[in-house]
Write a structure and sequence with these properties.
The strands form 9 sheets. Strands 2, 3, 4, 5, 8, 19 and 20 form a 7-stranded mixed β-sheet that branches. A 6-stranded antiparallel β-sheet has the order 11-10-9-24-23-22, sandwiched between helices. A 4-stranded mixed β-sheet has the order 25-27-28-26. It folds into 4 domains: 36 residues; 185 residues, Penicillin-binding protein 2a (Domain 2); 341 residues, DD-peptidase/beta-lactamase superfamily (Beta-lactamase); 118 residues, Trypsin Inhibitor V, Chain A, CATH 3.30.10.20. The chain has 703 residues and is of the alpha+beta class. Helices cover 36% and strands 24% of the residues. It is built from 23 helices and 31 strands.
Length: 703
């Protein structure tokens, strides 16, 4: 009995031991799975069936100052098919597969036969392909068409249609202010306004439940609530399309003409500091593109455009005046061990400050500056700081370097007896084009320096989320007495000085030419590299815009600022002033003429046959129809009267009152491009009627 009991207990202990070992093993495995490998297994378990994926928000638009898009997100769609969708029955598939193949062939895959497409659909159904590719890169209209296809019109559950979308960033104007607008890229750092205002543009991501149907393949789960992504805010830039276009075209023309390496130009609104245009062009594989923002980020010795600051400092100090005499020494003068030279050995001796400035004499300006500040160069530097030239502009874009201005105390080891004379004519200091223009803009704005800016409003739909007001950086950098003298001399530069080639009879320009040798410090250089520039404002009496143009290393047909940069400035100014004249003309239109135009059912100029057809259809009398092909209409008490409308092929016709289609037809023979804004009939044009056409495009405003 005892032996049986002992044997039974042994068996019990053995079984218990086995179960204990199994339990310990399971516990150990559970520990490994849950603690040591838990994260990985939970991830795999989640991926096996469902997961929540982020849905990117539509990125906000970057708009021009007139509301036209400079950068926008274009939705692009990819269509796939879940051939084993829960509601897609075999009989429905068999019934519709032929017609679906026909539609796919006709609208999406014309290079394949309908039978080939049908067989692919059947094979995908047999293989239970839940992610069969139908088409990529479709726009919204194409998506709506695909939704009407057989089977697909039944919806995702019964038709198996899967719609995937992404927002592709597009620039409707392509290279238009491209570097300033910037890029928003997946695998590279964003630049420009796209980066600076990303927090507003990016919007808020949504979330969607997705089901895994294959390796790294997920499809949306229908019927479950989705957290919809919130579209990003739009930003309204200060860029004006008309001014931007002429700035880029004029700069490109100069770079090509003078075989220059690159160039930049900026146009700023004097009163506010709003940047209306900013162009940066460099060669890339034989094409001029916006590859680098020279205007914001490139710092260099300005050369003679800096003489404006030296002039102001000398006049403010009060030891010289515009008539102060100076010996130009024939065009060359030695300071210590270095010789200062004018652009040529002109042989002129006694002259004055006025002549030295308007003819850009290095010898005259440097000798006068040395006589005023030679014993105390720190005072000269303090004036530059007072003018705000030692500070960054703080514009919204990245990459702006600090100005470089030597200090006789802080930079004692590199301050020589020649430093002050050379600084006074724009060497041994460095600024970006925007920093130079900000200073010039302050002079144009009666001494008030404005912070340059590129964005005026943040928009949520039609609602302004944030308005960005102009910012004053310095209230007054110079006395009124000095300003009057400076304005007069800057106008003289254009009227009788180095820039007299851009003098204009219809409005005045004030500015300063600049020609800097950029490789003077390389001893033994056979060829000189030049930087040609012009900075100024217009109209000189009541400045509206300031502008700077810099062309780097022109190599043919001239290299002086007056030859290379000033003509670009003039073309930009002409277009800007033409716009201003057009606005004034529109404001001064007689009220009766405007009302008569508004009463007409269509434009009051156009193709005679079109007028007859339309008026006949609406039952409105059309009297005295001319035999001429083109007519103009006048409203009378008993109907519409007509008159012949004639125009020649040399001067700009009056397009006001026409529809855009007719205007394009008329202007085809002129060889110019029409740039329309708005919808409806033409109410204004950038080139006034009767004026000879020199530009390659005409801006039209429609309403």
């Amino acid at each position: 009995m005892m032996e049986r009991r002992k044997e039974f207990l042994i068996r019990v202990y053995v079984v218990l031991g086995v179960f204990t070992l199994l339990a310990l093993g399971l516990m150990a495995k559970a520990f490994v799975i849950n603690i040591m490998e838990g994260k990985e297994w939970r991830k795999k378990g989640k991926e096996l069936y469902f997961t929540v994926m982020d849905v990117k928000a539509e990125r906000g638009k970057i708009l021009a100052d007139d509301g036209s898009p400079l950068a926008t997100s274009q939705p692009i769609f990819e269509i796939r098919m879940d051939t084993r969708a829960a509601g897609l029955k075999q009989d429905a598939f068999n019934k519709n597969v032929d017609s679906l193949a026909i539609y796919i062939n006709q609208y999406l895959q014309p290079n394949k036969s309908k039978n080939e497409i049908k067989n692919q659909l059947i094979q995908a159904r047999k293989k239970a392909d839940r992610y069969f590719l139908i088409a990529r890169n479709l726009n919204y209209d194409q998506l709506q068409t695909v939704k009407s296809f057989p089977l697909f019109r039944n919806g995702p559950n019964k038709g198996g249609m899967i719609t995937l979308s992404e927002n592709r960033r597009e620039k409707p104007y392509r290279n238009f202010a491209s570097r300033t607008i910037g890029l928003d890229r997946e695998n590279a750092e964003a630049v420009g306004l796209e980066k600076s205002f990303n927090s507003f543009l990016q919007g808020k991501e949504g979330h969607r439940v997705m089901r895994k149907v294959g390796h790294n393949i997920y499809i949306p789960v229908n019927g479950l609530e989705e957290i919809v992504a919130k579209k990003g805010n739009d930003i309204v830039s200060t860029i004006n399309p008309t001014i931007q276009e002429i700035t880029e075209l004029s700069l490109e023309e100069a770079i090509r003409k003078h075989n220059a390496e690159e160039g930049c130009a900026i146009v700023m609104e004097v009163e506010t500091g709003a940047v209306k245009a900013i162009a940066n062009l460099s060669w890339n594989n034989g094409e001029l593109v916006e590859a680098y923002n020279h205007a914001i980020a490139r710092s260099s010795e300005p050369g003679s455009t800096f003489k404006l600051a030296s002039l102001m400092a000398m006049l403010e100090e009060g030891k010289v005046d515009t008539g102060t005499a100076v010996d130009l020494n024939g065009g060359a003068f030695q300071f210590y061990d270095r010789i200062m030279k004018d652009s040529k050995l002109h042989g002129i001796r006694m002259s004055d400050l006025t002549y030295s400035f308007i003819q850009s004499s290095n010898v005259g300006i440097s000798k006068l500056a040395n006589s005023v500040f030679g014993n105390d160069p720190s005072k000269f530097v303090s004036y530059l700081r007072h003018f705000g030239l030692d500070k960054k502009t703080g514009i919204e874009l990245d990459g702006e370097p600090s100005p470089l201005i030597k200090d006789p105390v802080k930079n004692k080891s590199s301050w020589y007896g020649t430093t002050l004379p050379w600084m006074s004519v724009g060497y041994e200091l460095q600024f970006t084009p925007l920093q130079q223009l900000t200073f010039y803009n302050g002079v144009a704005n009666k001494g008030k320096v404005m912070k340059p800016y590129l964005v005026s409003d943040i928009m949520d739909g039609n609602k302004i989320v944030k308005h960005i007001n102009p910012v004053v950086m310095h209230d007054s950098i110079v006395s009124n007495a000095t300003l009057e003298k400076v304005y007069a001399l800057m106008k003289e530069v254009v009227d009788h000085g180095t820039a007299k080639n851009i003098k204009c009879e219809s409005y005045s320009i004030a500015g300063k030419t600049g020609t800097a040798v950029t490789n003077y410090f390389h001893e033994g250089s056979e060829a000189k590299n030049y930087q040609s520039s012009f900075a100024g404002f217009f109209p000189a009496d009541q400045p509206k815009y300031s502008c700077i143009v810099i062309v780097y290393n022109p190599q043919q047909m001239g290299f002086y600022g007056a030859e290379v940069a000033a003509p670009v400035f003039k073309k930009i100014a002409d277009r800007c002033m033409r716009n201003e004249f057009t606005k004034v003309a529109a404001i001064n239109l007689e009220p009766k003429a405007v009302l008569a135009t508004e009463r007409l059912p269509i434009g009051n100029k156009g193709y005679a046959t079109d007028f007859e057809s339309v008026f006949k259809h609406i039952g409105l009398p059309l009297n005295n129809v001319e035999s001429n092909q083109w007519i103009t209409t006048v409203a009378g008490e008993d109907g519409i009267y007509t008159a012949s409308w004639n125009f020649d092929q040399h001067n700009m016709p009056d397009l006001r009152g026409m529809g855009l289609r007719d205007a394009m037809y008329v202007m085809d023979s002129y060889g110019v491009k029409l740039v329309p804004r708005g919808r409806g009939k033409i109410i204004s044009q950038s080139i006034p009627p009767g004026v000879a056409i020199h530009d390659g495009f005409v801006q039209l405003n429609l309403q």
